[in-house]
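Example S7 (structure tokens).
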């Protein structure tokens, strides 16, 4: 619901009589008194951010804090974005997990990335990680395929393969096992 005060109408009338005043009306002229201006500005910022790519609630909150919005303003804008469906941590996590698994990233790295976004996959995602791993090859097969696709170029190929897998987010035990299997095929 939009409220227009008597003073606003009087000002518009005065402006309409003055030929030097720009007669276009801005959206900000229609801000409801129940919605503080900072909340609307923060919400617009959220809209701009999610137009580029999907984001987590924690990521958006940090960005608004960085832009010096008050905590009450951030909370209100984030709650509004959640109600509108602009922000959804479960959707964000689902897309991130699937894209990282498709890119042959390790599960440990994916979990760490989710936690940096303020998402605990074991709590927020049902049947994690089994529901996702059943859709993709095993982590070991994925790691070996990554090494086959982009083999390390080093004198010590085994050590380089292990390091590459760890950097790609595989656990150290899985990286060690996969690197050894891959190395055997290289000899």
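Recovered sequence:
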């Amino acid at each position: 619901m939009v409220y227009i005060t008597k003073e606003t109408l009087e000002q518009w009338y005065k402006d309409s009589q003055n030929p030097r005043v720009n007669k276009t009306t801005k959206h900000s002229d229609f801000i409801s008194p129940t919605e503080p201006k900072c909340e609307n500005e923060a919400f617009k910022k959220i809209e701009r951010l999610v137009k580029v790519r999907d984001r987590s609630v924690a990521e958006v909150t940090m960005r608004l804090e960085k832009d010096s919005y008050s905590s009450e303003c951030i909370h209100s804008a984030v709650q509004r974005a959640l109600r509108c469906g602009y922000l959804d941590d479960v959707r964000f996590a689902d897309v991130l997990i699937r894209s990282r698994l498709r890119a042959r990233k390790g599960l440990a790295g994916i979990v760490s990335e989710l936690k940096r976004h303020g998402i605990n996959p074991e709590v927020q995602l049902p049947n994690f990680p089994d529901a996702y791993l059943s859709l993709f090859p095993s982590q070991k097969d994925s790691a070996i395929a990554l090494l086959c696709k982009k083999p390390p170029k080093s004198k010590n190929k085994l050590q380089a393969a292990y390091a590459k897998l760890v950097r790609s987010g595989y656990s150290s035990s899985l990286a060690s096992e996969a690197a050894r299997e891959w190395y055997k095929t290289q000899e």
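Notes on this example. The first helix runs from residue 6 to 17.
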